[in-house]
Design a protein that fits this description.
The protein is an alpha/beta fold and 268 residues long. The chain has 2 domains: 98 residues, Ribosomal protein L30/S12 (60s Ribosomal Protein L30, Chain: A, 2-Layer Sandwich); 162 residues, 3-Layer(aba) Sandwich (Alpha/beta knot). It is 38% helix and 22% strand. The strands form 2 sheets. A 6-stranded parallel β-sheet has the order 8-7-6-10-9-11, with helices on both faces. Strands 1-4-3-5-2 form a 5-stranded mixed β-sheet. Helix 7 runs parallel beside helix 11. It is elongated and about 65 Å long. The termini are far apart. Keywords: Methyltransferase, Transferase. One of its GO terms (biological process) is methylation. Belongs to the class IV-like SAM-binding methyltransferase superfamily. RNA methyltransferase TrmH family. It comes from Coprococcus eutactus.
Amino acid sequence: MEVITANSNPRIKELNKLNKDAKLRKDRDVFVVEGIRMFRELPLQNVQEVYLSESALKEYRDEFKSMGVLDGRNTWILSDGVFAGVSQTKTPQGCMAVVKCMHYQLDSVLGRNDRETFLVLDTLQDPGNMGTIFRSAEAAGVTAVLIGKGSCDPYNPKVVRSTMGAIFRVPFVMCDDLPGTVEELRRSGVVVYGAHLDGDDLYDIGFPDRVAFLIGNEGNGLTDEVACRADRLLRIPMEGKVESLNAAISATLLSYEVMRQRKRDRQN
């Protein structure tokens, strides 16, 4: 295979744009995955292009071959220097792929099971928080993540890396009308709880089989138009002078409390 040795190569320019431009990702309906661990999680049917550094090709040749990415179709080799220039990490691992975006609709995730948990993100803007929420969602058995307009792009490279592969396994729905989505959840029988400083103590609540948690913006919390649609507001009790918890931590605690209660109920 020919080795790309210039940063001015059109493919390298396009990769840089895809890493930085959410609109371009949306228009092309693709996103970029980087790193050997994420590479191993790839749904191969969605992979459109593969980029490997010369060093990574030497180190992982057998693994790449078994994955079928060395057949010459849509696979390019980059010099280590060029790969380092396009990489979004401080210590590049030498493998990157352009992957077709996943698309989920609310009706494809709603009502699939008797017990469901949804995390609803209202203008959540920190990529690291969103990625952590995906990881926690998978670990706690969350049904799906619903992402409201104004939140960060789930295909942002930092979000994708932070999910540690969970983005490929946890369904997520992009919601242009989040208040309307919350109303649809309620009409379907899901009880909606809003994480709010004025809410009831989390540990005083017994959760039903189908629940959704509204998680707000890191600095401002839930928007009024979303919070007012919750069936009930709740808060996570805190000691000391701490006024609030990180959004990802809050989402994790809420998800795990539901999982704990369900496990207890099964044992009784």
